[in-house]
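Complex 305.
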Amino acid sequence: MVETDTFIDEAVAEIEAAIGDANAVIALSGGVDSSVAATLAHRAIGDRLTPVYVDTGLMRKGETDEIRETFSFMDSLRVIEAQDRFFERLAGVTDPEEKRHVIGEGFIAEFEDVAREVDADYLVQGTIYPDRIESEGNIKSHHNVGGLPEVVDFEGIVEPVRDLYKDEVREVARALGLEEVVSERMPFPGPGLAVRVVGEVTPEKAAVAREACHVVEEELEEYEPWQAFGAVLGKATGVKGDNRVHGWVVAVRAVESRDGMTARAQEIDWGTLQRIQSRITGENENVARVVYDVTHKPPATIEYE
Ligand code: XMP
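Predicted structure with xanthosine-5'-monophosphate bound:
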């Protein structure tokens, strides 16, 4: 475990040394990793850091408002409404790695605009240790690791939390005084809801996944899962009122883990599962059924794509 105060002092000094008098940008995702990286970088270089939050249309419910609030102390915060552009790019894309690629490219495009505008030479990223291991092992391409450096013409990349595990990042977040909603937030994948929608990502499927994730997070709070969410698998037949409908199948997943590299499906009581089912099917007339995923990692992954 890291000694947080020492870590913070050293990280701030390292960022100052790396960036000097130049300007930097960082992508905020709403997650704890990028929030910590941004806060450290802001301590180091103040408003010469431009935090960029891109609303891809694949974010958690209420995320954009929370970001504005949490980082209201950073005058340089940019919120970019890019939902339409992302859905356009994702139209017809069904392969999971292709999705990550398309989203990664979308991010680059949005960033380049801001980076150019604010004359940024450096990119700060919230990459953590398990992200690097998985990317190196090529288990999948993390869009926040692969891709960006080669394409964007930055003088350097600064990754202040690159050697930390998730639980260590949370400790640093607490020590930095970030709100609980940030420090205790469960991990959310870089490509967002796109990896919780099997097949093509459409605004409708993303909306179903977003609402399901919200319900699952709320209902399972007391279980303190490492990660819990709802995912859209496809369509199946159901009955609503007097009619047979062809509606969405939502998978509920809750796992215990330390770093996401392995995970155990969590045991959830029947009453809680039924409440989740009833809320998800009740709130959306296009959802026909809800299933619970009992598979550990391995052999499954945590996300669906
Ligand atoms: P999997 O699904 O591979 O997920 O078992 C392990 C952890 O990584 C997150 N994840 C991602 N994070 N970019 C990210 O930044 C990605 O492309 C990505 N895919 C999965 C996932 O949420 C889990 O915490």
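The radius of gyration is 20 Å.
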